[in-house]
Amino acid sequence: MTDYKNIDDLRALEGKRVLIRADLNVPMRTDADGKAFVTDDTRIKSVAPTILHLMDRGAVVIVMSHFGRPKGQVVPEMSLEQLAQPLADALKKAVVFVNDCTGEIVTETLDVMEKDAVLLLENLRFHPGEESNDPDFAAALAHNADVYVNEAFSCSHRAHASTEGIAHLLPSAAGLSLEKELTALEKALGNPQRPLCAVVGGAKVSSKLDVLTNLVEKVDHLIIGGGMANTFLAAQGIDVGSSLCEHDLADTARAILAKAEAQNCVIHLPSDLVVAKEFKAGADNRTISLDDVASDEMILDVGPSTVAGLAQMLNSCKTLIWNGPMGAFEIAPFDAATVALAKAAGSLTEQGSMVSVAGGGDTVAALNHAGVANQFSHISTAGGAFLEWMEGKELPGVKVLEK
């Protein structure tokens, strides 16, 4: 396993200014009075233990993050000021907000700030230098700090000033939640217990081509679900009716199947299907065999005998990686396969016979919907970074923290 610098490697933090890269890009809504509020504070809560740990060691903590996509412009509704109170609530500490992330205003605020408060900087992406990894902007961020800590795995697949550039300028380390994430991912794909199974679902093969190509070399079993499975079925000559399907990727799908066979990776596709003529909750549907899809029907889930077979196969697996749903899980009854398979995986994990790691927005939503998110060994809130890890790519924000 690659060894990363962690916060235990940081010495003598008393009075030192520690700059933490968090991901506070959380979902928000506006209430009837026009007041914005956070609808999911998972990311805010995940950085709290690191902030409190560093404060306990006498550090002055500065938090930086992006919010939304302002594209290098100041967009008032994307200000991090609206997250100062939610962060204060999570920490049970005072949070002081400053309306820039570099310069004299930051220095002056730090000089007069109460010892037990946390400083929250303005949106990093108000500056074009953040996403371009401008060395001058990285240096301006580093100017107000003695130490850098990365707690934003979800942003670490991008070489930005606050994730990669700054780590070359200050003593740097992975925070507690980033370290936990890297340890879990190493267990899942770096040095897994076998047999190793991956579930890859979602709408399009095109969006996960690199994932599939990498995984067939690494895993023993690959379960393909969602609209992606339709493309693989069609590539084998099965009529998928009016289902979501990328017919132009038939050759690609056949190449992946051939590569899997050469690598002794067993690909699991549906053996029965749930179809309907319209995509809506409670739509009239039927469970059929593969050769029975009518021209005006859509495949919206895999069938119960497929799920039963997959659950049986999982019994023999020691490690599971999951990204993407089995069917159109957002609407009943087409959530049945995702829920049943998730419950089987959760149960095996709780029994201690399997390590299970899941990631990606849809996946987290699906596992929460199934009520088993707390049973999985590790759930990553990262989207793009989790996918790039599954693709076998190096993540610049992580690479720079290697010992």
Topology:
Elements: E1 17-21, E2 28-30, E3 36-38, H1 42-56, E4 60-64, H2 84-91, E5 95-97, H3 104-112, E6 118-120, H4 128-131, H5 135-143, E7 147-150, H6 161-165, E8 172-174, H7 176-190, E9 196-200, H8 209-218, E10 221-224, H9 226-235, H10 250-262, E11 266-268, E12 272-276, E13 285-289, E14 298-302, H11 304-314, E15 319-323, H12 336-350, E16 355-359, H13 361-370, E17 378-380, H14 384-390, H15 396-399
Parallel strand pairs: 1-4, 1-7, 4-6, 5-6, 7-8, 9-10, 9-15, 10-11, 15-16, 16-17
Antiparallel strand pairs: 2-3, 12-13, 12-14
Helix pairs in contact: 1-2, 9-10, 11-12, 12-13
Task: Summarize the structure in short.
This protein is of the alpha/beta class and 403 residues long. It contains 15 helices and 17 strands. It has 2 domains: 7-178, Phosphoglycerate kinase, N-terminal domain (Rossmann fold, 3-Layer(aba) Sandwich), CATH 3.40.50; 192-390, Rossmann fold.
